[in-house]
Amino acid sequence: MTPEQATRAISEALTRVAPDADVGGLAPGDDLRDALELDSLDFLAFVEALSDRIGRRIDEDDYPKLATLGSARDFVAARTGG
Amino acid sequence: MEKAPMHGPRGPAAPADDAAIAARVWDAARAELDGLPGGRGLNIAHEAVDRHAAGPAAGRVALRCIGRDGDVTEVTYAELRERTSRFASLLRGLGVRPGDRVFSLLGRGADLYVAALGTLKNASVFAPLFPAFGPEPVAERLRIGAGRALVTSADLYRRKVAPVRDRLPDLEHVLIAGEPGDPATIGLADALAAADPEFEIPPTDPQDMALLHFTSGTTGRPKGAVHVHEAVVAHHATAARALDLRSGDVFWCTADPGCVTGTSYGIIAPLTHGLTVLSDAGDFDARRWYRILAEHRVSVWYTAPTAIRMLMRYGDDLPRSYDLSALRFVASVGEALNPEAVTWGERALGMPVHDNWWQTETGAIMIANVAGMPVKPGSMGRPLPGVVATLLRQGRDGRALVTDGRVTEVTEPGAQGEIALRPGWPSMFRGYLHDEARYAECFAGGWYLTGDLARRDADGYYWFVARADDVIKSAGHLIGPFEVESALMEHPAVAQAGVIGKPDPVAGEIVKAFVELKPGREPSEELARELIAFGRRRLGAVAPREIAFDEHLPLTQSGKVMRRLLKARELGLDTGDTSTLGSAR
């Protein structure tokens, strides 16, 4: 995935869990859990939704890489061979 | 002063037979506390803070607070005494009186401890709220509790309180921890600095209201369970027994400060034992948690099934890569702990996870797997000393069958019944605030009826089966379906809503809403998302995570949604005889 495609997949996964989330208003360095008020269960649901979209399992050890929009974009792009 | 308790510790009408036996246990526990100097009564804050600060433990670390970025702040018992005294002086200066409710809407940190214990020092009533609540649950609880003061952060105030403050005429003072904000609020740090560091705790009757914890029922609004200062007797004794707390321990309770566990065992019990309490402001993060356990040499850890199941996803090897040699006892509460989680503890942590059981209303642990007792994975354990528990035969509605005021105990091993407790333990709730009728409904035949169904085996171990009512247990929180349904029905497209707990491998249950739309509105993926968003904005963490549309929700004759039928359908169970449902459409 290109970084743009990765960002789109991430926003889709986020709005699936938290449709009230203003993903467009996020800065790349914002902590997703704080900014969008995601609790631990929301975060797990986000990881699952993202995993569906990119067609790859996301390992628990990689969860910290999904902390911000920017780090998640880089992670998804790298994992999908962008 | 408002005299809080409407009832003595034995509830409305209980026989005194075996309560007398248990009473001896509690008398012995009472003797381990000091009481206020000069025989002026019993106050939780004195037992938790001042009595240690006045002795050789004054310089001991009471709180070790880990910030979100990992920075550590330590507070000794002497410092905690001064800070809580300043908080009490501040309340007194603001005109907040004994018996008045002081709410908190705060994350974990030193300010929370200061607010809780300072409130109790002033003999005011501490009422903690869950910071993940949306504005509606916050407003509802502040209104029911007639909160006079609130301690929160600028951010939480702006998002969750400011939008509803005009509906809260009783709320006179809002104290802001951290960066001050809105001019309608008071900066806590400056106010504390200006407050008197000396404060003499006023005479406190053990039966004075101390804590107000909100919980949810099947129907109606949230209920404010009233606890009194005497509850500290049970907090102290059960922590020693069920959590194996000993002097020198470093204790970490991961429960949210907004729930009863976060107060009874996150704040009060470990401090009454003069221990060091760890508090972490960060969110769940497996590596962070293991690092905390290792670096801070945590010896007793009290957490929740959802957290354990999340840790289990990371496998057995990760915990083995940390030095957990200080860890001696691990316990869990929130919902039933599955056997796999108990045995995971044995493999990954080198000890089983000890499940225990209690409720907001019981104020303290009642049934537990205690240290040294063989753990049966999947069982909540046995009643603690001083706790008289039984199972009662159920009626058709699933609750204990009451005939002419009498109930029937289930005695055969393995049979199911509703867990009931003989009133008389010190931390029993003394009422639901301003709701005498619902309090009275909790008692029958001399028992407190818990609403939880269980089996008891031949060894006296209890095994959780289910809730007897429609209340949802999700990630350790009780969620009342009515509150969620009411919020959804404010949406213009919704005609009717029924909310249930859907089984979930991590959270136990998640909130799922079945929605019947108004004529002319069509179900769509877009509308489902809109309803989820609508719920989240109003309710926060108790919002439904799943929406299903249903053309005709099943109703009882009186027009109430049949949640039990929705749940049975969700589980794919035989929905059984529905002839009693009346006009189930």
Query: How are the strands of the largest sheet of chain B arranged?
Result: 2-1-11-10-12-13-14-15-16
Which strand-content bin applies to the residues of chain A? under 5%
Distance between the termini of chain B: 53 Å
Total beta strand runs of chain B: 26
What's the oligomerization state? heterodimer
* CATH third-level topology of the domain at 472-581 in chain B: GMP Synthetase, Chain A, domain 3
Measured on Cα atoms, how large is the radius of gyration of chain B?
23 Å
List keywords for this structure.
heterodimer; A: mainly alpha; Non-ribosomal Peptide Synthetase Peptidyl Carrier Protein, Chain A; B: alpha/beta; GMP Synthetase, Chain A, domain 3; 9-stranded mixed β-sheet; 22% strand; disordered N terminus
Description:
The complex is a heterodimer of chains A (82) and B (585). Chain A has 82 residues and is mainly alpha-helical. Chain A has one domain (3-19, 34-79): Orthogonal Bundle (Non-ribosomal Peptide Synthetase Peptidyl Carrier Protein, Chain A), CATH 1.10.1200. Chain A has four helices and no strands. Chain A has helices at 3-17, 32-35, 40-54, 69-79. In chain A, helix 1 (3-17) packs across helix 3 and helix 1 (3-17) packs across helix 4 (69-79). Chain B contains 17 helices and 26 strands. In chain B, 30% of the residues lie in helices and 22% in strands. Chain B has 585 residues and is α/β, with parallel strands linked by helices. Chain B has a domain at 472-581: GMP Synthetase, Chain A, domain 3. The A-B interface holds A 15-16, 18-20, 33, 37, 39-42, 44-45, 60-61, 63-64 and B 132, 283-287, 306-307, 310, 313-315, 475, 504, 506-507, 510, 529-530, 532-534, 536-537, 540-541, 545.
Question: What order do the helices and strands come in, and which of them pair?
Answer:
The complex is a heterodimer of chains A (82) and B (585).
Chain A: H1 3-17, H2 32-35, H3 40-54, H4 69-79
Helix pairs in contact in A: 1-3, 1-4
Chain B: H1 17-30, H2 44-53, E1 61-66, E2 72-76, H3 77-94, E3 101-105, H4 110-121, E4 125-129, H5 135-144, E5 149-153, H6 154-161, E6 173-177, E7 186-187, H7 188-194, E8 209-215, E9 223-228, H8 231-242, E10 250-253, H9 260-272, E11 276-280, H10 286-295, E12 300-303, H11 305-312, H12 317-320, E13 329-332, H13 339-349, E14 353-357, E15 367-368, E16 382-383, E17 389-392, E18 416-421, H14 436-440, E19 443-444, E20 447-456, E21 462-467, E22 472-474, E23 477-479, H15 481-488, E24 494-504, E25 508-517, H16 525-539, E26 546-549, H17 563-571
Parallel strand pairs in B: 1-11, 3-4, 3-5, 5-6, 6-7, 10-11, 10-12, 12-13, 13-14, 25-26
Antiparallel strand pairs in B: 1-2, 8-9, 14-15, 15-16, 17-18, 18-20, 19-20, 20-21, 22-23, 24-25
